[in-house]
């Protein structure tokens, strides 16, 4: 059976690398993102790697519109095996400059949008389904100069744990991978290597499942 993967916040970095990993196995990859040009490039890469691609431009902070997009894509695919949640908002403001509204706006994308994504896809997932999320060391070692990012990543890690506990009884598991390093073009924190760590986390043995895994590079 063809594996179907949906990626929210698809872009040229880690999420693109993960899409190509699955494509190499013949998967169909649904790509949701904000930039049509980026999505078109990723779709070409997915197909070149041996998979099939579906794309949709989506403002992930728009709950109604995103639910509709995810539902349409999942209906077309028929079933969903893997969800990957990638987006976050980077706003270079420290706690003395960051407003409550700005913080909530960023959390809506980096955490809240996961609820929309999951809830819309859930009817199309069965036992063996998996959800993953790109985490960050900012969750417990935040940089004060971009205070909202640490809040997002801490909230994401916490929410993924709750999702895993809520769905484990249905045979669906969730995991966040805490990337403990700065992404780089080369080396252990290059997107391709981080994507491999994500894939390993998604494929971990359910009998010894961990909902949060640190990638140290």
Automatic annotation (TrEMBL):
Keyword vocabulary terms for this entry: Oxidoreductase
Keyword presence, Oxidoreductase: yes
Keyword Oxidoreductase: yes
Signal peptide from the UniProt entry: none
UniProt cross-references to CDD domains, sorted A to Z: SDR_c
Family designation: Belongs to the short-chain dehydrogenases/reductases (SDR) family.
Record protein name field: Short-chain dehydrogenase
Organism: Nocardioides aromaticivorans
